[in-house]
Amino acid sequence: MKWKMGDMVHGFRVNSMSHIEEVNSDAYLMEHVKSGARLMYLDNDDDNKVFYICFRTTPDNSKGTPHIMEHSTLCGSRKYPLKEPFVELAKGSLNTFLNAITWPDKTMYPIASRNDVDFHNLMDVYLDAVFYPNCLKNPQILMQEGWHYELENKDAPLTYNGVVYNEMKGALSSPEAIMEDRAMEKLFPNTTYGVESGGDPEVIPTLSFREFTEFHRRFYHPSNSYIYLYGDMDIEKTLDYLDREYLSAFDKRNVDSMVKTQAPFSKRVSLTAPYGIAENESTEGKAIHALYTAFNDHMTTMDSLAFRILNYVLIDMDGAPLKQAVLDAGLGSDLSGSYGDSYKQPVWIVEATGSEVDKQAAFADVVDSTLRSIALKGIDKDMLEAALNRTEFTARENDYQGRPKGLFYGVRAMDMWLYDRNPMDALRYIDDMNTLRKNLKTNYFENLLLRYVIKNPHQVLITMKPEKGLTEKANQETAEKLASFKSSLSDEQLEKIMASTKALKERQASGETEEALKTIPLLSRKDLKRPIEEEVLEKESVSGVDHFHFQVHTNGITYLNLYFTLGNLKEADIPYAILLSSLLRSLSTTKHSYTELARLSNAYTGGMSFALNGYGKVNDTSSYLPALTIRAKALTSKTDKLMDLLGEVINHTLFTDAKRLKELVLQEKSEWDMSAFSRGHTLVMTRLTSYFSKGGEFAEQSGLSYYYFLADLVKHFDENREGLQEKLAAVSGKIFTRSGLFFETIGEEEEKKAVLENLPLLLDDMEVGVKTAPHVYSFPPESRNEAFLTSGKVQYVAKGGNFKSHGFAYTGALRVMETILRYEYLWKKVRVLGGAYGAFTQFLRDGTAILCSYRDPNLAQTIRAYEELPAYLENLTLSDREMTKYVIGTMAADEIQLTPSMKGERAMVHYLSGNTRESRMKIRDEIINCQVEDIRRLAPLVDSVMKDPYICVMGSEDKIQKDKDLFDKVRSLPD
């Protein structure tokens, strides 16, 4: 250990220290004596360093002050007097993470970088932002990020606008978000969890500038802060900097931010709340029932871990008893569960979708009686052990898909640290796992259920009732309220609002001064040294099947990827292949029931997933390789079990259980119903590419086209059941053949050997089949330029085309241009001036070009902004320093730490797409050497795409109908 207990290190006293095996770190808890700031440091050799400063922020209303403050602190500070230093950082940093996050009881400002200088720069900008923000003296920042009255002229309607205001209109559009809001309000009526920390759009416009600034003065003090450092750094230098530059300027004080504990209820609370659906939607099967249970505020880490396992066994696992009971009772099409311990009092939610409003009491009765029966008769020990193995595998694998693992450790630590408990305990799990394994022989899990749920009346039973026209009614009420308010204003008052609207827009449209820009620290192009790794895929033929191996250390885990090409399928088969990929492993086989399969999979593997993919060629827009991809993993010592289970699922799945098949199809449709709007940006972007790309056509079959297919399948399931069973069996037989298979192993020689030794378990029962050439399908869209109506209050607006079809080539300059668009042009035009939460852009190697907005209050205005882009590029003027900034920001994507499995998967994608190392090096060099003239030369390329007649929008029924002339077709989402 670096220090001893009680040591003083640059103003910090060491209060606790320990080695934490689970995160391979020496951990220190320290306090800055003068300011009262708490600090946790995890010392290890990870070069992906992480810092955050977190404040306990406990609002007592739903004005959204914590959320708006999180946005606003990053809009200029003492040292960095720009309008948006956060954006300037994003433009020119090699960060591996850069964001700010608001939770119901805390606000966190995290950053991560693998570059030492960059890490320090990011840390300094964030610390200056939180302690000395310009938003305390400039009301225009609250107007922009929070809310403001907007009035262009006296005859125009008075409206609300603001980034957080519009974001929360979108966030609270889904029935689940509204449900959580209403349920938490009833579950915690006397604590901070009973209000919406993100802000309720109905209440946000009551937030005053005085309240806003008082919130900062109350909560943003070092005595109310939690500072986290992780990774391989010069810690002495870092602590000295924190003390000298920031913390020593503050004196310790008492900050009243304690999260109160809600007194337990004497009986369950029940309520019904409405949510909006589109006018032409049916209300049938649209009700949602949920039971929220609040636990006490002193659960042990073991009890909390055990409850995660219980949730999985009771609800999420195939054949889970609570889910099965609700489905068998006909109380919904799906049951889901979630356990959250990021609150002072953990909350368990059991939610049934696809139900009817009048089934609330029956839902509660079935949940209550089933849980009592389970506690009395006992939980299947084999299922518990399998779930425990799955949980342990996930914990040991530590796979965060390239995101900084140190950040996840830090977030987890806050789950205890914020409530004055030891954050080190949050990172330990080995002892708890070992004890839970011993407890499998006892009634520990049953008693847990009894104590925290069955005998606990601190519950809220809520039903969400679909209501047509509710959103439109709310919009009308807001418009009438604003109209009434406007009519009460004098000419002088109206002039004042118009003047403030104009002043804000002028501020938003104006650029930063060169002097202000130079305050942001910047790396140089010489810092961009990280090489492009050589990706070696060993190739051999095994039993007539091509085998690729990617050599990498995997800590004793075998990763196996199977690729079954779809040459034997016709266009009409593809939706069934997509459905098949969601059903596999959830149906019985000739050897095991689906519940036994689930137990075996959890007991012996790290999981297996199935998905249809189209692997495109980087230089050929009309060609792609369609395949059903299976990704599977297990401890190398359990590879035989993995291969045996894969062989069973692939070769021996039965489609004869009509009841089970219907359950799964209904669940799949229910999941789409609940998630479609929240991922509207990905759906409209995929739909858009189908208008002009063969690869896009194929990808879109898994998008909205599949949603419509599912809806029709559900509607006619009973009459077409036998045909569906036969079709699934036939499609499965066509896909799973040796002739259509190639596979990849990821690991060292031991992992490769383990797979090859057990390959017969997979291949012996597999049909040989007939080898066919790769097939490019033809799915010409029914129409282009579509709009999809929802009950949401915001839009996702996409426009694009294919620049290669106009004779243009892909270059590294397009990557730099994307960074410029994302953090300059689209940020200003669509987010700052337009009020959208964000905007995306993609210019891909195959020629695909897409612009898309996210949670956007506008539609036609956003399309105009897209169409004005070529003129912006044509006249772009940037200093060398600014250009360097964009180049560095572009290269940040290459700083991501790939996990072993990600490295192997990327190597295979590069191989299949023909994206050679030489080609990638050429693009990298073009990025590093990019000049502003290279960006200006892209204006004709972008102009060609903007002139393509392709747009796709999902959003508010009112907004789309007003702009319906923009579209060839306006349609509702599936019912």
TrEMBL record:
Single GO BP term: protein processing
MF annotations from Gene Ontology: metal ion binding; metalloendopeptidase activity
Origin superkingdom: Bacteria
Peptidase M16C associated domain: residues covered: 464-713
Pfam family, one: PreP_C
Gene3D superfamilies to which the protein is assigned, alphabetical: Metalloenzyme, LuxS/M16 peptidase-like
Name this polypeptide is given: Peptidase M16C associated domain-containing protein
Organism, scientific name: Dialister succinatiphilus YIT 11850
